[in-house]
Amino acid sequence: MRRLYIFDTTLRDGEQSLGITLNAAEKLEVARQLARLGVDVIEAGFPASSPGDADAVSVIAREVKGVSICGLTRAVESDIDCCAEALHAAEYPRIHTGIGVSPVHMEKKLKLAPECVLETAVAAVKHAKKYVGDVEFYAEDAFRSDRAFIAAVIENVIEAGATVVNIPDTVGYATPFEYEELITYLMNSVRGIEKVVVSVHCHDDLGMATANSLAGILAGAGQIEGAINGIGERAGNTSLEEVVMAVYTRRNQYGLEMRVDTREISATSRLVSRVTGVPVPAHKAIVGSGAFMHASGIHQDGILKDRSTYEIIQPEIIGGVCSTINLSARSGRHALRHRLQELGYQLHEEELEKVYPEFLQLADLKKEIFDQDLHALMGMSASGSNWITLKNIAVATSGVSTATATISVDIGANSCIDAACGNGPVDAVFKAIDRLTGIEVRLEDYSLHSVTRGSEALGEATVKLRSGDNGLVVGKGISIDVIEASTKAYVNALNKIKM
Ligand code: KIV
Ligand code: ZN
Predict the structure, then answer these.
(1) pLDDT above 70 covers what percent of the chain?
(2) How many CB atoms sit inside 10 A of residue 361's CB?
(3) What is the pTM of this model?
(4) Cβ neighbours of residue 153 under 8 Å, at least 6 residues apart?
(5) pLDDT band at 322, cuts 50/70/90?
(6) Architecture of domain 384-498
(7) What atom in ligand 1 is closest to the CA of residue 13?
(8) How far does residue 378's CA lie from ligand 2's centre (Å)?
(9) Which residues, in sequence order, are CB contacts of 341 under 8 Å at separation 6+?
(10) Rounded Cα–Cα distance for residues 226 and 143 (Å)
(11) Is residue 449 scored above 90 in pLDDT?
């Protein structure tokens, strides 16, 4: 069987484009989960873009083994030097370098003549080869470029030592038929192409990234690039999980072998959504919360008779399992650990000791604990060091005028209390915390959604804060009291800023 390599760019094309700054610990957590998922390559960042990114790439290179760790560069020597340094501890390092090849990129962005672009591309690959054996070249905006010209560029970078050649549809302009044609053309006309892996990298501006990637694979591409939940620039990258599940579900059609453990897909999607603060739409293919729900009477009747009437993927295959026991305030540690294990969380003794009281607190307030509650609980439990710890919240509101919030916190070893008025209770709480911390932050986004249904459902708050010129930091909080959930989210984001 032909092998399909899976290249994940959640931490590079996905993360950078959101304006969100994931800290190194969050990036490492995602990279570890991607390694569990079994992707072949993790593009961990763009080291020359910031010292924080360089640091995150080097931490991942040092800590995550058994998978290729890749860094992006422009076709610029200093970028390549910086990337090589960040990757130096990687078990399988890969440098991903490249340059724009379409007329608009060459004329308007680079202001370089095509011959000069070709020379720069070759020089970049040769420079990267001084550091690592595995060099991937990207021909940015390949889909909108002159075919004979990309063929010449690709042929020359292969001669210079590229091991993988990436043919991106950078602006999501292609349709499947045309993209398949482009890959077929390159497979048939570039000398030496049989020695390298051809990679497809698509964007979703016209909603065709998955279809285009599959078309490229049919034409002979051996690697597909994408991001979990399809996050990324503008309308996003190809959803990695969609291509993986298409190739898996239609394996008789594609006849491709992958290394991915599909049972890790749900856990990876949840983690990426939690750390980036980008929610997964309910109807999203494969990982949306409604992707396996059957609502209409006719469908439910069919499912009860035989699941295959309306189900092409069993939820267990992507790691979504059905409850075998109901948890409540009477459940012990053993039952909690068992259910968490079924949901994909492997807890050490100390982790269980930390999460169990939080579980009991929640179970005291809610009659039933659903899987979504446990995912939310685990998400909170995993996050955050504590520069500031929330102690108490008191809010007074008449419903017609401003609200007043009084907040007690511990900041380091000091216990402090302060109050503020605001336009509504959430605004008052955030203002009181700002008075307590003295940190200047800008609230860029705030959202609240219920984790399950009904009036006693858990509320999950997400805040995005910006401090100074830094990127956005995402904070999350859960509680059945929405003011408490919002306050916890704000405090969680502040703790990340102070990390
Ligand atoms: O979309 C694109 O062209 C890219 C390259 C930098 C690989 O992300
Ligand atoms: Zn891209």
Answers:
(1) 98
(2) 12
(3) 0.88
(4) 101, 117, 118, 121, 139
(5) low
(6) 2-Layer Sandwich (3.30)
(7) 8
(8) 31
(9) 347
(10) 17
(11) no
The CA-based dihedral angle spanning residues 348, 353, 358, 363, taken in that order and rounded to the nearest 10 degrees: 90
* Distance in Å, CA 9 to ligand 2 centroid: 8
Instruction: Tell me which residue has its CA closest to atom 7 in ligand 1.
Output: 138
What are the pLDDT digits (tens) for 175-203?
Answer: 999 999 999 999 999 999 999 999 999 99
Pocket test for ligand 1, best of 72, 167, 224 (most atoms within 8 A of CB): 72
Q: Give how far the C-alpha of residue 476 lies from the chain's centroid of Cα atoms, to the nearest Å.
A: 16
Asked if 107 contacts 152 with a C-beta cutoff of 8 angstroms, the reply is: no
Per-residue pLDDT of 128-172, as tens digits, reads 999 999 999 999 999 999 999 999 999 999 999 999 999 999 999
Cα of 17 from ligand 2 centre, angstroms: 10
Structure tokens at 174: 């292609």
3-class DSSP state for residue 245?
A: helix
With 70 as the cut, is the pLDDT of residue 424 above it?
Answer: yes
Nearest CA to ligand 1 atom 1: 170
User: For residues 44 and 55, what is the distance between their CA atoms, to the nearest angstrom?
Assistant: 10
> In sequence order, which residues have a C-beta less than 8 Å from that of residue 184 and are 6 or more positions away?
219, 220
pLDDT (tens digit per residue) in 16-28? 777 777 889 999 9
Q: Where are the domains of the chain?
A: 2-276, 292-319, 323-382, 384-498
In the numeric block, the tokens 């308007």 are attached to 108
Q: Which ligand 1 atom sits closest to the C-alpha of 72? A: 6
Assign domain 2-276 one CATH number from 3.10.350.10, 3.20.20.70, 3.30.2090.10, 3.40.50.80. Answer: 3.20.20.70
